[in-house]
Amino acid sequence: MTASRSSSPVFPTGGAALGLPEDAAAQTRMVHGATLRSGFDETAEAVFMNSGYVYGSAEEAEAAFDGTHARYVYSRFRNPTIQMFEDRLALLEGAEACRATASGMAAVFGALACQLQAGDRLVAARALFGSCSWIAGELLPKWGVVTEFVDGTDLTAWEQALATPARVVLLETPSNPGLELIDLEAVCALAHKAGAVVVVDNVFATPMLQHPLQLGADVVVYSATKHIDGQGRCLGGAILGTKAFIEEVCGPFLRHTGPTLSPFNAWTLLKGLETLALRVERHCANAVALARHLEGKPGVARVLHPDLESHPQYALAQKQMSGGGSVLAIDFAGGKDAAFRFLNALRVVKISNNLGDAKSLACHPATTTHQRLTAEEKAIQGIGPGLLRLSVGLEDIADLIADVDRGLAAL
Ligand SMILES: *Cc1c(COP(=O)(O)O)cnc(C)c1O
């Protein structure tokens, strides 16, 4: 890319322009891929912190607007720094295209709202992130969308719900905080027979551990706030899918409604992608080690992590994920009192409802993230009074083990 106006680029793609080998591996692409180097030859990607763009002539402005000359016109539509993040994430996901959003919820809402209309059916897994379940269960029905929730782990329930045509299927696997898995291949096949577009919230798996598009999903959404940033700095989200879906269905919705990511946050997330593989590897190793350490300890009724042989869907985890992720759940026999004692005794792990961070973070879903649910809904989703969610960070594992031992001693 050059800084000269006369050769204004037509949304260049970085990898090829930089001479990156076609067969460069994922980690190499996460460091170099999709870079749009400006005429100043900077090493790190530039932050294009601008809202608008200038034209060399009235004719050029006209051509930009009638679509004969594809170029940047306004940062609500496209921006080079945001585009670098989108294109690099698309390379990692193996998606044809990507659009970034200001938060994970803007991505989930955009991916649904851009394709649903009054009268359409939405079939969703019951165990969804709180705000996703509000959109599916409360907001969209007010707009005439008929939502049906199913137990995501029950293929017969999916089969029954998808015996009637549906427009969209929404699911999250592993789920939050119960770490339930959904068989992506099986559900995608059923959904496609019902004519539905499958949207997968892949936050817990991260782009490193599970590839929903390869298992039949049509659209993948992320809260980039979680592992993609992974260092507690900013909010962000992304929607990935085919070029046709992103450019023709999703693009106009985002362009006109404006849930745009800040270029600065896009830059932060772009740098996050450079280290994502390394971080996720350590997150997983620490999470499994901690889960194994906690399993069977006095006062611990159950530890849930997809990589534990005791996980009810261990075989499915082995089949569709290359690692179980950074989050584990602990069910304390002593209920809320035990969970609170454990939390209050921790010195390294912080009490926070965030996850996917370098810092280990723990929370009590029943009284925080999932407080809004009725007692019956909590019971269905396995969110008991003794359940604690632990997002395992990048600290030294010996310190984390010492910390949970402090918590156990306080039971
Ligand atoms: C955090 C999260 C979201 C929402 O993302 P924000 O960036 O907070 O808007 C959606 N789905 C899942 C599974 C999440 O963990």
Automatic annotation (TrEMBL):
Q: Which CDD domains does the UniProt entry name for this protein? A: CGS_like
Q: Which cofactor does it need?
A: pyridoxal 5'-phosphate
EC numbers, comma separated: 2.5.1.-
Per UniProt, the keywords (alphabetical) are:
Amino-acid biosynthesis, Methionine biosynthesis, Pyridoxal phosphate, Transferase
This entry carries the following GO cellular component terms, namely:
cytoplasm
Q: Provide the positions where the record notes the PTM N6-(pyridoxal phosphate)lysine.
A: K226
Describe the reaction catalysed, as an equation: O-succinyl-L-homoserine + hydrogen sulfide = L-homocysteine + succinate
Q: Which SUPFAM superfamilies match?
A: PLP-dependent transferases
Source domain of life: Bacteria
- To which pathway does this protein belong? Amino-acid biosynthesis; L-methionine biosynthesis via de novo pathway; L-homocysteine from O-succinyl-L-homoserine: step 1/1
The record's listing under PANTHER family reads:
CYSTATHIONINE GAMMA-LYASE (PTHR11808:SF80), TRANS-SULFURATION ENZYME FAMILY MEMBER (PTHR11808)
The entry sums up its family as follows: Belongs to the trans-sulfuration enzymes family. MetZ subfamily.
Q: What does this protein do?
A: Catalyzes the formation of L-homocysteine from O-succinyl-L-homoserine (OSHS) and hydrogen sulfide.
The entry's protein name is O-succinylhomoserine sulfhydrylase
- This chain's source organism reads Insolitispirillum peregrinum
What's the source species' lineage?
Bacteria, Pseudomonadati, Pseudomonadota, Alphaproteobacteria, Rhodospirillales
Per the record, the gene is metZ
